[in-house]
Write a structure and sequence with these properties.
The chain is mainly α and 484 residues long. 84% of the residues lie in helices and 0% in strands.
Amino acid sequence: MAPLQKLFRQTFIYGLATVLPRVLSVFLLPLYTTVFEQASGYGQYINIYSWIAIFNVFLAYGMETAFFRFYHFAEKKKSVISTSLISLLASSILFFLIALLFKDHIAVWTNIRSDFIKFTVYILVLDALAIIPFALLRANEKPMNYAWIKTLNVAINLGMNVFFLLILPKVAGNSDSFFTSIHRENFEIQYIFISNIMASAITLLIVSPTYVKTPYVFDRVLWKKMLKYAFPVLIAGIAFTINEVVDKILLTEMVSESEAGKYGACYKLALFMTLFGTAFRLGVEPFFFSQAKEENPQRTYAQITNYFVIIGSLILLFVVVYIEVLAKLLIRNSAYWEALEIVPIILLASFCLGIYHNLSVWYKITDRTKFGAFISSVGALLTLVINFALIPKMGYMASALATLVAYGSMMSLSYYFGKKYYPIPYNMRKIAFYGGLSVLFSVLSFYVFNRNLIAGSLLLLLFLGLIYKLEGDKLKTIFIKRED
């Protein structure tokens, strides 16, 4: 159990690095849905940050995953670090110059105001330059450093948002004050950008010693190998991001910013599953590579997936049972609540995505990243086809169903190909039992009992009791028992 204890300990810390910042950023949801009284305002914000997510993938171009792959197996680790840093530094500067030069063309293409483009470029470049320093922290198993820097980033972002959107309008009334000079009416989106830029700039400054201390040697041969490995990861990343954000963009274009705003706000209620999946992925990705050298790593990989499914099943049921409580807590504007029906579907989709990330170990370990690109591309194609076909008829429900179909298909394909190229002894009976029971109880709570808290809570307690009875001893061994 020692490897699993190590993994879950690191995952817990990465979870803090992910959950604490996101918990802080959760406060932005009630803030934004209050500031943007009309859902269309929040829809505009969702549309812009959806495009930022897409461009983030292009600026990273798979180098983070390539860095892990070559750093763990290379004898000259400093060469991997310096080559990666030079590559991303050069590409980021090139993007910065081209994007600002053609910002008007980009504005027309993305349907984003031209004066907003320069803000997005600053955010994208600052975040791209921090990719390898953060990857190095993870590769060297320094989750605490990773955690506090990430938490500080979001704390600054949250603090500046609160200042600009809540405090500044109230204190700017005095015409002689400094605050009056920096306050602008109808400047909410710009203030959100400025807050993000400040947080990203300070974060890059904190991790900048990686750039200062690294002896710069560019290994052209290594770089070509990294790009070859990274290219399928880039394709997979593009496809994955399409699955994540294109629905918001299409809803904005095909229906309205208001519908996109309602969908985007309620989509955020699935963040508890997303947080768990992200934290787990951050901990498990370097762990996969480090365990590949051990004897019978497949057994460990199978155990990891079992426990992911158990915890994910519990999160799914918990959020569905208390969905209305969470909505009233996090989305203060009732104008957004009509889209709550998408939440169970998005939760299940996020659960499938988390399982997919666990199953994806086979193509990363065996250097068959082209399968990751293929699988993600299938998901992206399904997302696009379903959204284009059904949004005019079903609105945001089409987008929710497209997300579930895409991630469910990706999960299934990864399992199918994994059995052929890198068999892992997954306990499918256990996975199907916990996942299926969680979905059944969620359906009963949300649809049959019509979100009744008492009935839902009883189902949740029954599920917890089953987990304790069947898995209690094993879970105690992992989470409580100390290593010798």
